[in-house]
Amino acid sequence: TWKWVVGPMFLYLCERLVRFWRSQQKVVITKVVIHPFKTIELQMMKKGFKMEVGQYIFVKCPAVSKLEWHPFTLTSAPEEDYFSIHVRIVGDWTEGLFNACGCDKQEFQEAWKLPKIAVDGPFGTASEDVFSYETVMLVGAGIGVTPFASVLKSVWYKYCHDATNLKLKKIYFYWLCRDTHAFEWFADLLQSLEAQMQERNNAEFLSYNIYLTGWDESQATHFVVHHEEEKDVITGLKQKTLYGRPNWENEFKTIAGQHPGSRVGVFLCGPEGLADTLNKQSISNSEADPRGVHFIFNKENF
């Protein structure tokens, strides 16, 4: 038995030593941004840190807990000179991080007073393959939108510098959310990308659909009253917020009709139930003919 156990144990100990070594490397918090509804953005720098779109890191804050590591998806793009995460305050550890960063105080916080942070990673995810396709469907549910913040930022930078070398030609973006609280920090990014595409006369590059799944009658009435306005009253975007859940069968059939003979990458960050639905739709809407349209499903869950 020991011959079978010693190999995996040796690899495990090596992995723990590498993680300990990386966690000791100095991380500098360069900026803390407080977003509405108790969401904070930490912008950090670390020597030798290299990332790709959609990756995630483990974060430890000794001032809050000396042992706890928590995974967070990177919301910055590889083209930026820092890496960032967005933290929604929903528990004891995130509340402790919120207070340690001085976000509970009104006065300006000095940089030297910010807590020490240990970072392990980054680690890869399926979202890294986004730029391998000409057409992609990005589906984020709730906080699952964070990997696509990194993707869309990177698209924006690539489009600004050299759009001709970008293989990706069309993005269909879907965001499913129960309420409007999570829209605040992400809407600015969509507005920037929307404006950039319009300036370059390529507004069709990004098609996005935002769905509010937890709506009531008063919200629906407000939606009807303001539906004819130029910009959406919730997000400030030209694309109107939708209510309910998408009809995935219709969405897949529409995309298949618009992109015949192509490979469409379907990327999800969300719950397992939605993953099963999208996987089935990807299979049923892919053609048997190798020259037909094929949907390639990729997912990540946490």
Automatic annotation (TrEMBL):
<dbReference type="InterPro" id="IPR013112">
    <property type="entry name" value="FAD-bd_8"/>
</dbReference>
<dbReference type="GO" id="GO:0042554">
    <property type="term" value="P:superoxide anion generation"/>
</dbReference>
<dbReference type="InterPro" id="IPR000778">
    <property type="entry name" value="Cyt_b245_heavy_chain"/>
</dbReference>
<dbReference type="GO" id="GO:0016175">
    <property type="term" value="F:superoxide-generating NAD(P)H oxidase activity"/>
</dbReference>
<keyword id="KW-0285">Flavoprotein</keyword>
<comment type="function">
    <text>Catalytic subunit of the phagocyte NADPH oxidase complex that mediates the transfer of electrons from cytosolic NADPH to O2 to produce the superoxide anion (O2(-)). In the activated complex, electrons are first transferred from NADPH to flavin adenine dinucleotide (FAD) and subsequently transferred via two heme molecules to molecular oxygen, producing superoxide through an outer-sphere reaction.</text>
</comment>
<keyword id="KW-0521">NADP</keyword>
<keyword id="KW-0407">Ion channel</keyword>
<keyword id="KW-0832">Ubl conjugation</keyword>
<dbReference type="InterPro" id="IPR039261">
    <property type="entry name" value="FNR_nucleotide-bd"/>
</dbReference>
<dbReference type="Pfam" id="PF08030">
    <property type="entry name" value="NAD_binding_6"/>
</dbReference>
<keyword id="KW-0249">Electron transport</keyword>
<dbReference type="InterPro" id="IPR050369">
    <property type="entry name" value="RBOH/FRE"/>
</dbReference>
<keyword id="KW-0597">Phosphoprotein</keyword>
<dbReference type="GO" id="GO:0046872">
    <property type="term" value="F:metal ion binding"/>
</dbReference>
<dbReference type="InterPro" id="IPR013121">
    <property type="entry name" value="Fe_red_NAD-bd_6"/>
</dbReference>
<keyword id="KW-0472">Membrane</keyword>
<protein>
    <recommendedName>
        <fullName>NADPH oxidase 2</fullName>
    </recommendedName>
</protein>
<keyword id="KW-0813">Transport</keyword>
<keyword id="KW-1003">Cell membrane</keyword>
<dbReference type="GO" id="GO:0043020">
    <property type="term" value="C:NADPH oxidase complex"/>
</dbReference>
<dbReference type="InterPro" id="IPR017938">
    <property type="entry name" value="Riboflavin_synthase-like_b-brl"/>
</dbReference>
<keyword id="KW-0349">Heme</keyword>
<dbReference type="GO" id="GO:0006952">
    <property type="term" value="P:defense response"/>
</dbReference>
<keyword id="KW-0408">Iron</keyword>
<keyword id="KW-0812">Transmembrane</keyword>
<dbReference type="GO" id="GO:0034220">
    <property type="term" value="P:monoatomic ion transmembrane transport"/>
</dbReference>
<feature type="domain" description="FAD-binding FR-type">
    <location>
        <begin position="19"/>
        <end position="129"/>
    </location>
</feature>
<keyword id="KW-0560">Oxidoreductase</keyword>
<keyword id="KW-1017">Isopeptide bond</keyword>
<dbReference type="InterPro" id="IPR017927">
    <property type="entry name" value="FAD-bd_FR_type"/>
</dbReference>
<keyword id="KW-1133">Transmembrane helix</keyword>
<keyword id="KW-0479">Metal-binding</keyword>
<dbReference type="GO" id="GO:0034702">
    <property type="term" value="C:monoatomic ion channel complex"/>
</dbReference>
<keyword id="KW-0406">Ion transport</keyword>
<keyword id="KW-0274">FAD</keyword>
<dbReference type="Pfam" id="PF08022">
    <property type="entry name" value="FAD_binding_8"/>
</dbReference>
<keyword id="KW-0325">Glycoprotein</keyword>
<keyword id="KW-0851">Voltage-gated channel</keyword>
